[in-house]
Amino acid sequence: MTTLDTETADPAAEPGAHRGGLRRRARRPGPDGARGRDRRPDHRTGRIPLGRRFRRDRTLLLMTVPALLLVLVFNYIPILGNVVAFQDYDPYVSTNGVTAMLESPWVGLAQFERVLSDPGFRHAVENTFVLFLLQLLLFFPIPIALALLVNSVLRPRVRAVVQAVLYLPHFFSWVLVVTVFQQILGGAGIIAQTLREHGHEGFDLMTDPEVFKFLVTAEGIWKDAGWGVIVFLAALAAVDQDLYEAAAMDGAGRWRRMWHVTLPALRPVIALLLVLRVGDALTVGFEQLLLQRDAVGPGAAEVLDTFVWWTGLRSQDFSYAAAAGLIKGVVGLVLVLSANKAAHLMGEQGVYRK
Amino acid sequence: MTQRTTARPEGRRPGPGRPRRAAGRWSAPARPVWEEPPGRAGLAAKGTLLVLACLAVLFPLWIVVVTSLSSKKTITETGGLVIVPRDLTFVAYQELLGGGQVTRAAIVSVLVTVTGTLFSMTVSVLCAYGLSRTGSLGHRFILLALMATMFFGAGLIPTYLLVQTLGLTDTYLALILPSAVSVFNILVLRGFFMGISPELVDSARIDGAGDLRILWRIVMPLSRAVIAVITLFYAVGYWSAWFNASIYLGDQNMMPLQNVLIQLVQKQEIPVGLGQAVKAGNLSGLAVQMAVMVLALLPVAVLSPFVQKHFRKGMLTGAVKG
């Protein structure tokens, strides 16, 4: 889900410890004294000739080759494939995709102009934005509250059972989650069925465009709110218990301790997760929405990702869809980077370090 | 979860005046003296909330399981989904697993998941170990190259065109290769490997062990917890995936279980070959749908609690270390 820095949550593993103790102040020895990597000579001084470094590290380099190859082929090469966004790409002009790309006519920014003036695209942007805001407002606070709740359970067994139950839906596929919701809230679902039995009008929340966005958010909460608890629980476990004792000695009650000790301890994690969420704002659940797009219609369910899927793979307008996808990718990149910048400015750790 | 009790050791020690009782895992550790005991209302509110949260997860699953086990008669009587179990029967499962579309899809899903997970784990563990020694040649560059992919996705259309050009469409490789490497998982593994005491690794090297042997004999046995978590992540990813199959596979007979589930439940179809049994026999179409759902969620629901106590490691040791 997220790339978290250990420093915020787990003080035992210190990033940067390998930088060598020479240039930095001496480190507090760990409880087990296992701080051996501090004593390792710093390889980055570059005093070892390149040839020897290569001979020394060639097995390590070789080990990274399979993963690098896969990333190169399936992550980097497709970036080049985005050139079709500047073409009028026709897959049938040649026998395979690459030669078709070479032979298709170039149209400059025409596809982008088409995309940006398309009301369907604008509608998808709007839906994406509304869904993102809803998820931020309704989803985001729930894992924090749940974590505080679970953390207050002292019995280890009870705690383990509760955690196991809460984590479970995270591992279900979207197909399952959407189906479960359909069976409960849908027209043939358990609630409509019970209402009909008691002589009321049945209803079908699954196909109601009015409530669809709340429904999508609820599905997200059901699936992943429990999973989100882990990060906060780890942060809570890292809080120095003496702080609580000291606060209690000073007369702080249960709620004041939560306000003045617990919440400040959670602040870095909350900031980091907020940043991650904002950086990922354009992704609001592709598979989930695609599965429900037919039932509720594109008016309510079309977001950027499904727009690309529909125009590209369904209508076979590859260049057009690639242009829309590229817009999403570039805006997403800008969002991630500026979100990180914002985190740094707030004095928190971002996803990456400067 | 033991951090809690180790964090306040005084909680474990029975007080002088208190009768010593067996420290069962169900019993609560004693509160530290400074903490006021919770009020009755507070306890009740807390308990209610926890029970509600758990019920929100479990109740829908209960309905699915019970309905899948109900006979056609029960389902007709209740008019749909069944909450209270009555004369349970395994007829839906017998029909589904007796050969045919769903059986084939389940086998496909299991094979893709097992092969894919093994492949992904091999590639990821090797890469994570290869990057776990800071200062090794090219280590920073490779790390950056991997992490950059977390910020910018190439997009659906170019990826689709690439898979098509490579000739992977209509093969199971299209379900495995494009999603085989998760950079996040590699970073988690690497973070864990870096925490292993270097003395251990160095002494093995002095004894003449190569990097592969060190990885296999020392690093991996010490990292069982995180390896279990990442294996689960990959396996769940492969098991739950349906989108790639829907765009890369044309043949309905090749579809994995999730895609068959979409056809059955979303489009209210009856599995090929079972129509007769549903019309004539004791088999309800709804029970069949629910049984397919149970098949799709069972492996995950059974396996994930075993790895649960290690989740924290899998989520948090992925620190992005230079």
State the shape of chain A: globular
CATH-defined architecture of the domain at 110-345 in chain A: Orthogonal Bundle
Query: Which parts of chain A are unreliable, with pLDDT below 50 for 5 consecutive residues or more?
Result: 1-42
Count up the helices of chain A. Answer: 16
What do the pLDDT scores of chain A average to? 81
CATH topology of the domain at 110-345 in chain A: MetI-like fold
Which descriptors would you attach to this protein?
heterodimer, A: about 350 residues, MetI-like fold, 16 helices, globular, disordered N terminus, B: about 325 residues, mainly alpha, about 65% helix, disordered C terminus, transport (chain A), Sugar ABC transporter ATPase (chain A), transmembrane helix (chain A)
Structure description:
- The complex is a heterodimer of chains A (354) and B (322).
- With 354 residues, chain A is an all-alpha fold.
- The model of chain A is unreliable at 1-42 (pLDDT under 50).
- Chain A has a domain at 110-345: MetI-like fold (Orthogonal Bundle), CATH 1.10.3720.
- Chain A is built from 16 helices and no strands.
- The radius of gyration of chain B is 26 Å and the shape is flat.
- Chains A and B meet through α1, α2, α3, α6 and α7 of A and α1, α2, α5, α6 and α7 of B.
- Chain A: This is Sugar ABC transporter ATPase.
- Chain A: Pfam families: BPD_transp_1.
- Chain A: InterPro entries: MetI-like (IPR000515), MetI-like_sf (IPR035906), UgpAE/MalFG_permease (IPR050809).
- Chain A: It is found in: Cell membrane.
Could you write a compact summary of the structure shown?
Chain B: Belongs to the binding-protein-dependent transport system permease family. The complex is a heterodimer of chains A (354) and B (322). Chain A contains 16 helices and no strands.
Question: How is this fold's topology laid out?
Answer:
The complex is a heterodimer of chains A (354) and B (322).
Chain A: H1 6-9, H2 50-81, H3 97-103, H4 110-116, H5 119-139, H6 141-151, H7 156-167, H8 174-185, H9 190-197, H10 212-237, H11 241-249, H12 254-279, H13 286-296, H14 298-301, H15 304-314, H16 318-345
Chain B: H1 3-7, H2 40-68, H3 72-78, H4 91-97, H5 101-130, H6 139-148, H7 156-165, H8 173-176, H9 183-194, H10 198-206, H11 211-222, H12 224-240, H13 243-248, H14 257-266, H15 275-280, H16 285-307, H17 311-316
Helix pairs in contact in B: 2-16, 5-9, 5-12, 5-14, 9-12, 10-11, 12-16, 14-16
Pfam families (chain A): BPD_transp_1 (PF00528)
GO cellular component, one term (chain A): plasma membrane
Protein name (chain A): Sugar ABC transporter ATPase
